[in-house]
Amino acid sequence: xxxxxxxxxxxxxxxxxxxxxxxxxxxxxDPKGMDGRIDMEVVGPDGSHVPCYVKKLASGLYRAEYRPxxxxxxxxxxxRGRSWMLLASVRAAGQEVKHAIHELDxxxxxxxxxxxxxxxxxxxxxxxxxHTAGCPFEVVVKNPAVGQDVIATGLGLYQSRAGKVTNFVIxxxxxxxxxxxxxxxxxxxxxxxxxxxQQKDGNLLAEFTAHSAGAYKIEVxxxxxxxxxxxxxxxxxxxxxxxxxxxxSKPNFVQFVVNRREAGFAELDVTxxxxxxxxxxxxxxxxxxxxxx
Length: 293
Known about the structure:
Blueprint: H1 3-6, E1 10-12, E2 25-30, E3 42-43, E4 49-50, E5 52-56, E6 62-66, E7 86-92, E8 95-96, E9 99-105, E10 108-113, E11 121-127, E12 130-131, E13 137-139, E14 151-153, E15 159-161, E16 165-171, E17 180-185, E18 191-192, E19 194-198, E20 204-209, E21 214-222, E22 225-226, E23 232-237, E24 243-250, E25 253-259
Parallel strand pairs: 15-23
Antiparallel strand pairs: 1-2, 2-6, 3-4, 5-6, 7-8, 7-11, 9-10, 11-12, 11-13, 14-16, 16-20, 17-18, 17-21, 19-20, 21-22, 21-23, 24-25
Keywords: Repeat
Family: Belongs to the filamin family.
InterPro entries: Filamin (IPR044801), Filamin/ABP280_repeat-like (IPR017868), Filamin/ABP280_rpt (IPR001298), Ig-like_fold (IPR013783), Ig_E-set (IPR014756)
């Protein structure tokens, strides 16, 4: 292929941007219908050449595959990797928990947050848009008032899935069960049936099923007086109501809209997987309507 012709050749693919050490990366070369041999090389951060395998696809494109073994910037032609970014997410019952990231030393960071709800907190760390090893994971958060005061505990006080039985526990401190009452009101003001079961430890297990998405008010009383923290508001979600809209592709990226207007409030995870089974970096932005992404 002549030098002048080579300027018409285009190259694209995730393998030109951000890749994970030890994983196969690839990029495609479009020769624009021209004949001739295409030479490619991948150079590591230490100047060593990384094996690169090239195959011709049925579409006429050439696909180059390589597997980096070192973390840094690789050279492939004139294209270099971009800066890396560490992002942290802390959520409880689908709600974002305020947190801060402090740099302790070069390459070492501390994530600080203060739990407000006695429910499992989901921690997710992403390095350049990709999950770090072991993420996401959950941290158990207990109510300090357990054993000290009459309270209600459990994720069912704050979040539930439509059509599924959910529950929470009333810590009675051995008070008679007849002293307690639970009233659950749906988003349209309708009463939601609830059942309470006496447990061996003397506590009460309350169960209910929400059939539609929305905010449900849960009132727990002892002798007509609200227990500590009551009323609670449970956000019920319905994942089947989430819609993917406006899928479109541009030269260097693909974009689409996630519509969760009728799905209720809950944490939303979006993952894009390449043909090689690898998670691809992505960016999620809120639309003007906060229920669309």
